[in-house]
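Input structure tokens:
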């Protein structure tokens, strides 16, 4: 509605520069916290429930945006998500395949966030930053919706080194 108001007032709004986003950094890990190393199966079951809810929400939002003629930014995942199911495996994107399909059918984008510790972008590359390299969807456009230096990506290290959170 706002876009239509802008247009009736003579303001030009290029459609390819507007991306509607929904939930920012949805909580994908179980609540209450479950240590995956202590009880992997329970962690997996509860995590998949979260994936399912977030996936259905994103698909519905993208399909509605398509009806309204809008582009959507899907998932808005925080650094490190989706997780690896086991340490030696790649990120687990399979439950989000319906999201991928909705991105493609609606000309939407996948939104990821990348932050790194004050030691630099190479520290934990492909986990804190560069996570997009693990996305197995070659035809899906990716937008980095947030990025920067944030020591909270390793809060234990931040505290041990006496550093501050936030921008450095």
């Amino acid at each position: 509605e706002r876009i239509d108001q802008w247009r009736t007032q003579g303001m030009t709004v290029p459609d390819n520069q507007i991306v509607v986003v929904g939930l920012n950094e949805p909580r994908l890990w179980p609540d209450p916290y479950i240590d995956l190393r202590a009880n992997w199966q329970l962690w997996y079951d509860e995590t998949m429930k979260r994936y399912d809810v977030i996936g259905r929400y994103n698909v519905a939002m993208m399909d509605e945006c398509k009806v309204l003629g809008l582009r959507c930014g899907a998932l808005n995942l925080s650094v490190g998500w989706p997780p690896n199911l086991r340490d030696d495996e790649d990120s687990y994107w399979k439950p989000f395949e319906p999201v991928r399909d909705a991105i493609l059918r609606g000309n939407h984008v996948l939104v990821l966030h990348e932050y790194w510790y004050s030691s630099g972008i190479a520290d934990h590359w492909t986990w804190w930053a560069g996570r997009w390299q693990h996305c197995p969807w070659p035809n899906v456009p990716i937008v980095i919706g947030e990025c920067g230096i944030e020591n909270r990506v390793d809060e234990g290290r931040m505290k041990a080194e006496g550093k501050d959170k936030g921008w450095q």
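The chain has four helices and four strands. The longest helix spans residues 40-67.
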